[in-house]
């Protein structure tokens, strides 16, 4: 369990505490860096499901974690009570479904790269670390790929791509649709763009590019499966923290695999929970389930998410 401090520029004290639960083997990636939308849980996962809560602070932190209340309490009834915000996101894992190195070793056949999630970059990084491929990458392939365009969604994905030595562009687009528009405005190569992705990727980006005559070659490098511990971890959270004032989803798959458990645990109080999405794709998934979306983060960053949650809770009267 780890504690983060969120504050605004010029604020004399922290505005909120973010507590991260259940991520064994090191801090959550959301603590180390922002995560873009669409991250998924790869096969072979062995870590705990990650649950987080956000707690408004009216005073400087004491250095102690707040005690958990076993009672389930509906949000909004007592504005002086702590308001819990549950963040449903996945822990960092180190497994992938397919080795992309064979295609990465032939940059002459592609016009550039596209990364829309940190998970895809992690899969590429893993394949470079295996069988002593890192040296070959650094000596020749890295430079050849840097002579081409490397498009990414979000600062989290960009930072990981930078870590493997590639320069990026398009990170400020925020989602795949906007990135596709950005690529269409700049790309003129007749060669296809290589797109490492997951099994549940949306087709909108490849379709938008192909409609504009820009060829794309998708390469599946990870798969999304439900984590076996999600129900147990949600049960533990609800029994210790009660019903949260808000629940944030980071991907449509996260919603799919957790909604049934959340509905059972929340009961009649589910209508009082503020549902938040990290981006438009997840917001559409929430709406498709008949859930009201209280806010969608303006960008896939912790700062934008915290601001959106704060606004949603303030509109709730607390």
Describe how the helices and strands are arranged.
Layout: E1 2-6, E2 16-21, H1 29-32, E3 50-56, E4 85-89, H2 101-104, E5 112-115, H3 118-129, H4 133-146, E6 149-152, H5 154-163, H6 176-186, E7 193-198, H7 204-211, E8 216-222, H8 230-241, E9 246-249, H9 252-266, E10 274-277, H10 280-288, E11 293-296, H11 302-314
Parallel strand pairs: 4-9, 5-6, 5-7, 7-8, 9-10, 10-11
Antiparallel strand pairs: 1-2, 2-3, 3-4
Helix pairs in contact: 3-5, 6-7, 8-9
Give a brief rundown of this model:
This protein is of the alpha/beta class and 318 residues long. It contains eleven helices and eleven strands. The N terminus is likely disordered.
Description:
The chain has 11 helices and 11 strands. The chain is of the alpha/beta class and 318 residues long. The protein has helices at residues 29-32, 101-104, 118-129, 133-146, 154-163, 176-186, 204-211, 230-241, 252-266, 280-288, 302-314, and strands at residues 2-6, 16-21, 50-56, 85-89, 112-115, 149-152, 193-198, 216-222, 246-249, 274-277, 293-296. Strand 7, helix 7 and strand 8 (216-222) form a beta-alpha-beta unit. It has a 7-stranded mixed sheet with strand order 1-2-3-4-9-10-11, with helices on both faces. The chain has a 4-stranded parallel sheet with strand order 6-5-7-8. The chain is elongated, with a radius of gyration of 20 Å.
């Amino acid at each position: 369990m780890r504690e983060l401090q969120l504050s605004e520029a010029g604020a004399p004290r922290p505005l909120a505490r973010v507590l991260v639960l259940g991520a064994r083997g090191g801090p959550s990636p959301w603590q180390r860096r922002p995560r873009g939308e669409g991250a998924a849980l790869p096969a072979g996962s062995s870590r705990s499901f990650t649950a987080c809560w956000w707690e408004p602070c009216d005073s400087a932190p004491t250095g102690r974690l707040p005690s958990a209340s076993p009672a389930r309490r509906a949000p909004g009834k007592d504005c002086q009570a702590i308001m819990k915000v549950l963040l449903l996101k996945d822990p960092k894992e180190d497994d992938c479904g397919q080795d992309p190195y064979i295609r990465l070793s032939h940059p002459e056949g592609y016009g550039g790269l596209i990364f829309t999630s940190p998970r895809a970059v992690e899969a590429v990084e893993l394949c470079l670390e295996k069988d002593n491929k890192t040296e070959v990458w650094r000596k020749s392939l890295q430079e050849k790929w840097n002579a081409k365009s490397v498009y990414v969604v979000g600062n989290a994905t960009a930072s990981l791509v930078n870590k493997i030595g590639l320069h990026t562009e398009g990170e400020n687009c925020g989602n795949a649709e906007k990135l596709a528009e950005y690529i269409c405005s700049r790309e003129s190569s007749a060669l296809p763009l290589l797109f490492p992705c997951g099994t549940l990727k949306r087709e909108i980006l490849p379709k938008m590019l192909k409609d504009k005559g820009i060829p794309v070659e998708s390469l599946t490098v990870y798969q999304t499966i439900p984590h076996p511990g999600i129900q147990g971890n949600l049960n533990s959270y609800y029994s210790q923290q009660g019903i949260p004032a808000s629940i944030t989803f980071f991907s449509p798959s996260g919603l799919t695999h957790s909604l049934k458990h959340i509905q059972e645990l929340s009961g009649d109080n589910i209508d009082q929970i503020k549902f938040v999405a990290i981006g438009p794709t997840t917001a559409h998934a929430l709406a498709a389930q008949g859930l009201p979306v209280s806010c969608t983060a303006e960008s896939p960053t912790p700062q934008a998410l915290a601001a959106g949650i704060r606004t949603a809770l303030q509109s709730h009267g607390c």
